[in-house]
Structure of OmpH family outer membrane protein:
Amino acid sequence: MNKSLKIVLLLLILLQAGPLAAQKFGYIDSEYILNKHPDYKVIQDELLKLSTEWKKEAQSLDQEIKELYTQLKAEEVLLTEEMYQQRLAEIKAKEKASQEFNSRIFGIEGQYYQKQAELLQPLQSKIYDAIERVSRRNNLAVLFDKAAGPSAIIYTDPRHDYSEFVLEELGIEENN
């Protein structure tokens, strides 16, 4: 009885461990997928256009500040101390406004990054849905992103790269 109980227990353990050994793993390269998606190029172009406009505006503010400093330096001998300090205070206020502009536009939660998130969100959702469908279709337990950093993936076997399946799921043909 003791021996048969051990055998039954061993069989139960093996049956429980069986599905664990059968788990499939794979990886994708989200950067590769994004660069292949035509909508990403449109988004990048729009962001570049916006960023160029904002950078020009920031450069214009900086140029205006430089000109004010040059003008102050040229008129320094003609100004009273009070007038000099007043103009210097005006320049400092413009510098502060310029820094606030840069922070508001290009800061961590600035308009540029908000616009980027707004434009990329629908595309990222579409890609995530395709990744989920590919994972379910291929019975993958875990799917890593090779482009996510810092990555713990040291080596990847191309046989386990599902990036092309995701592109296929998105309806993107291989052009290269």
Observations:
- Residues 47 and 116 are 7 Å apart (CA to CA).
